[in-house]
Amino acid sequence: MASPVVYGPNFSTYVRATRLTLAEKPAPYQLVEIAFMQGAHKQDDFLKRNPFGKVPAFEHDGVRLYETSAIIRYIDRSFGGAKLQPSDGKQLAKMDQVISIVDSFAYGAIIGKLVWQRIVTPMTGGTPDEAVVKEALPTIRICLSEFERILGESQWFGGPSLSLGDLHLAPVFAYMVNTPESADLMKPHGKLAQWWERMSARDSMAKTQPKFG
């Protein structure tokens, strides 16, 4: 069986979530870099893989997929190794909820606004828009509060074992903690901070560290 191929820039949070899932199984894969900042994801070659122009796109054994939540579930179902979805229905629902919160709320506020203004804009020679940062903070606070509530007393977002929920959220956290607002945002969330300490120490995180330039 051929190894899967992931199409997208290594610095994308969603590409990293896919790579984390493959690393945790573990399963070998090929990463095909896409020149995202130059708009390659909007060009015809990539649009054949994902007509919405979003990353990543994914191929394996004749299957072509996009949408990260579908890709990572496919990986967990299709490859041997670690089971990354809990068998308990309640824990599985919590995992699904975390993935949905990331997609619906956390990514847009944390990455699309806070991280973009604090990290990406300065990297490209621009000046952060403080109004955009301020606008994002209330939603980010709600997201962090809900992540902590859902985590509860568990070690992971699937209960006692690492799950796709952890792998979906971790790349977003990895950028957020490098913003000046992070310390204040995380101050009320000790359990979430402990989760991040465990998550960031995993070998899969080191193997998928983004590279710029």
Please provide a brief summary of the model.
This protein is an alpha+beta fold and 213 residues long. It is built from nine helices and four strands; from the N terminus they run E-H-E-H-E-E-H-H-H-H-H-H-H. It folds into two domains: 5-78, Glutaredoxin (3-Layer(aba) Sandwich), CATH 3.40.30.10; 89-207, Glutathione S-transferase Yfyf (Class Pi), Chain A, domain 2.
Layout of strands and helices, then pairs:
Blueprint: E1 5-7, H1 13-24, E2 30-32, H2 44-47, E3 57-60, E4 63-66, H3 68-78, H4 89-123, H5 130-151, H6 164-176, H7 182-186, H8 190-200, H9 203-207
Parallel strand pairs: 1-2
Antiparallel strand pairs: 1-3, 3-4
List keywords for this structure.
Glutathione S-transferase Yfyf (Class Pi), Chain A, domain 2, single chain, Glutaredoxin, alpha+beta, 2 domains, about 210 residues, about 5% strand
Plain-language structure description:
With 213 residues, the protein is an alpha+beta fold. It folds into two domains: 5-78, 3-Layer(aba) Sandwich (Glutaredoxin); 89-207, Glutathione S-transferase Yfyf (Class Pi), Chain A, domain 2 (Up-down Bundle), CATH 1.20.1050. Helices cover 55% and strands 7% of the residues. It has nine helices and four strands. It has a four-stranded mixed sheet, covered by helices on one side.
